[in-house]
Amino acid sequence: MSFTLAKTERLAAILSQTPVIPVLTFSDAKTGVATCKALRDGGLTVLEVTMRTPKALEALRAIVDEVEGVTAGAGTVLETQHVEQAIQAGANFLVSPGSSSRLLSAGSEAPVPFLPGVSTASEAMQLAERGATFAKFFPAGPAGGPAFLKALVAPLPELHFVPTGGVDLKNAQEYLDLRNVAAVGGSWVVPQDALDSGDWARITQLAKEASALKARSSSQA
Ligand code: 3PG
């Protein structure tokens, strides 16, 4: 099964809405809703809710139902079962840190766009063989950073990446200036202490700074 043009276009439209996708891990739905409202108020409207906690699916469902004006995806999708659960919880897109062959089949057959992860040229080529145009580049810092992605532009010009893992406000623009970067992902916009203390104003402020960044490849740039 390969990646369809229709879903690739939907993914392109989602990614063009934002330079930064917050990577979010919630231990309860209420905190998830409040955090996503704070991020939206700061201008970040595309969000990745990781499937790493027992309440992740409940949080995703509440965000989809209660937070207007955001596009919420499911992150840390590792297995076929996660794909089904995330779709049932209302995920608008799916993200994985990697790309096993079974997950690629399940993800590309899902009714919403799928952003699989890669960290090598060979993995990127396997995605390209299946017709994918976008990939998460994870873990971006340890796997080679901006220099690695820059080196892929010449041999793999059709592929665009969402670097995530070790990205923050200081280095995000260096990634976003590359022609093959659609957006970056990261958890820095929601520091754990702000989440724990319910400091929504700080999260909105961090989102404002992040949403002011510009992706070179974005039609919004
Ligand atoms: C992810 O799942 O994408 C990462 O955990 C996010 O990485 P970061 O915490 O370094 O931003």
Question: Main traits of this protein?
Answer:
221 residues; alpha/beta; 4-stranded parallel beta sheet; 3-stranded parallel beta sheet; binds 3-phosphoglyceric acid
Percent of residues in beta strands: 5-15%
Uncertain parts: none
Order of helices and strands, N to C?
A: HEHEHEHEHEEHEHEHEHH
Largest sheet: 4 strands, parallel
Output mean pLDDT. Answer: 95
User: What's the architecture, going by CATH?
Assistant: Alpha-Beta Barrel
CATH topology: TIM Barrel
CATH superfamily: Aldolase class I
Adjacency order of strands in the biggest sheet = 3-2-1-9
Say what oligomer this is: single chain
Count of DSSP-assigned helices:
10
CATH class: Alpha Beta
- Helicity range: 40-55%
- The structural class is alpha/beta
Calculate the terminal CA-CA distance, rounded to whole Å.
Answer: 33 Å
Task: Give a structural overview.
- The structure is a single chain.
- With 221 residues, the protein is of the alpha/beta class.
- The protein has a single domain (5-219), classed as TIM Barrel, CATH 3.20.20.
- Helices cover 42% and strands 14% of the residues.
- It is built from ten helices and nine strands.
- It has a four-stranded parallel beta sheet. Strands 6-7-8 form a three-stranded parallel beta sheet. The protein has a two-stranded parallel sheet with strand order 4-5.
- Strand 6, helix 6 and strand 7 form a beta-alpha-beta unit.
- Helix 2 (29-41) packs across helix 3 (56-66) and helix 2 (29-41) crosses helix 10.
- The chain is globular.
- Residues 23, 50, 75-76, 97, 138, 164-167, 185-188 line the site of 3-phosphoglyceric acid.
